[in-house]
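Entry 14. Ran structure prediction on the chain below.
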Amino acid sequence: MTSAAEQLAANLNFGAFAKAEDLKKRIWFTLAALLVYRLGTFIPLPGINPVAFADTFKNQAGGILGLFNTFAGGAVERMAIFALNIMPYISASIIMQLMSSIDKRLEALKKEGEQGRKQINQYTRYLTVVLAAFQAYGIAIGLEGSSSASGSVVIEPGAFFRISTVVTLVGGTMFLMWLGEQITQRGVGNGISLIIFAGIVAGLPSAIAGLFELARTGSVTTFLLIALLILMLAVVAAIVFMERAQRRLLIQYPKRQVGNRMFQGDTSHLPLKLNSAGVIPPIFASSLLLLPVTVAQFASGQGPDWLNTIVAALGYGQPLHLAFYGALILFFAFFYTAVVFNPQDTAENLRKYGGFIPGIRPGQKTAEYIDYVLTRITVVGALYLMMVCLLPEIMIANTPIPQRFASLLGGTSC
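Output, structure tokens:
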């Protein structure tokens, strides 16, 4: 009896050890992949004058380049081979999600299960190449037309530089997409999300160091420094709480008879997330708002007067900027939620499997009730997103803290 118990304990210990070894391998693989990603953000594009580009970037860091640089972990600031980061893939995924709700063929593929999902993923990869190539060519053209006090950004402009830039940037994006898939399969967590997370967190130490430097020189008071650190922790805690919050609708299934046996009805829940749109609304709103600013900065202030007036009104902390930013976040929160969640399909699936919400008639009434609940919790989720994203804008306008630190408290980074 004792030997049998010892054998069972040994088997359990071996199983736990084997699982621990597999977890260790996955963690080490994830860390190694992220290290490769970080190294790539320091390899500059061929044919670039780094000093001249650094001067040019300082003048345009407040535009859309600054937003992309936050996601890319500083790769845009250095114009590295990973400057496009994984953003073309994210854009392609969003476009495919939108198209799958509009196009009947893609909608049918989505309902085919694993095989349909693989086909949609393949289409997403093709679209990623197209978007990355388009963006890379635009970057090449913009770099050729840029210069600073240190000279021209591009050492030898021409067709060869454009081709090499497009090939390098597209190759960097495709490599990161492949690396993210490898992390998902052989590492820990979602690879694409970890790459974005690593890029954002990479700027946190320097931002905090800059904040302490301002406190040392007296530009930031000790009280403000402590308040900012407490606020940072409070924002992170609030985001975690709100992102996990959900409204659960009770679903009941009637009694059923299988042969001569009668089975009691089961109960389950339909979870509706408070923030179904995720970080998509802040990303879309930021991109649309910063686009005219970036265009005007590339024009070096030589654009028409009306464009310069719009750029001045849309500056950080300006009332028009805050109003438009908040309105765009609210709009995209409702728009994207309507795209990714269809109450009609959910109600139809419930009726197909015999499920119903107590007190609500199956079919159209159920769809209307789900839409009613989803609309109201989306109001709370959209307001939460708006407040989190407007917080750094208000801090930049009213406090002497660095823009880079304040941006890390925003919705797209948290």
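The two ends are 56 Å apart (CA to CA). Will compare against last week's run tomorrow.
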